[in-house]
From TrEMBL:
Swiss-Prot/TrEMBL keywords: Membrane, Transmembrane, Transmembrane helix
Highest taxon above the source species: Bacteria
NCBIfam families: thiW
Keyword Transmembrane attributed: yes
Spans through the membrane: 7-26, 38-59, 89-111, 126-149
Name by which UniProt lists this protein: Energy coupling factor transporter S component ThiW
């Protein structure tokens, strides 16, 4: 029964993340994935959260023509899930999502973009100014949403312990 519940919530997170990331877009920012990464870090744990972020990004890439970097959210999702598992500190989890998706993923995705896509990028730091503002806005929103969910006891437990 628990396995079915895990996969059901995973599917819901993927669908919700895909829809929100397609609808909620600011100029040069799509913070909904980062919001979902923070909420998923608390509710899903690192493995399922990373899978949800990767599959949601893959759907955005395939169905809405986003570039390969749309799949980079799994890095921050995994790291923030690990931090939440170890510390149970929501705001440290928010900061980890900002650093994981906003900086680490930005640097790491330079290499597949130059190798597989043929992008002519000047530096591995190229994506940081694009990723970091979105990660900051989305992670803060996710932290606030998760705090409110917990405060009002709408959802007061983790879904999985992966």
């Amino acid at each position: 029964m628990m396995k079915l519940r895990k996969w059901t919530f995973l599917g819901m997170f993927i669908a919700l993340s895909f829809v929100l990331s397609t609808v909620i877009v600011f100029p040069n920012m799509a913070p909904a994935q980062h919001m979902m990464n923070v909420i998923g870090a608390v509710m899903l744990g690192p493995g399922y959260n990373a899978l949800a972020a990767f599959l949601s990004g893959g759907l955005r890439m395939m169905l809405s023509g986003r570039p390969l970097v749309a799949t980079s959210g799994w890095i921050g999702a995994f790291l923030s899930g690990l931090v939440y598992r170890k510390t149970h500190c929501l705001w440290l989890t928010v900061a980890t999502e900002m650093i994981g998706s906003g900086m680490i993923a930005a640097v790491l995705y330079y290499y597949p973009m130059t190798a597989f896509v043929g992008a002519d990028l000047p530096s591995p730091l190229f994506y940081i100014p694009f990723f970091l503002p979105s990660a900051i806005v989305g992670a803060i929103i996710g932290g606030i949403v998760q705090h409110l969910l917990r405060k009002h006891q709408i959802i007061n437990q983790k879904i999985t312990h992966n």
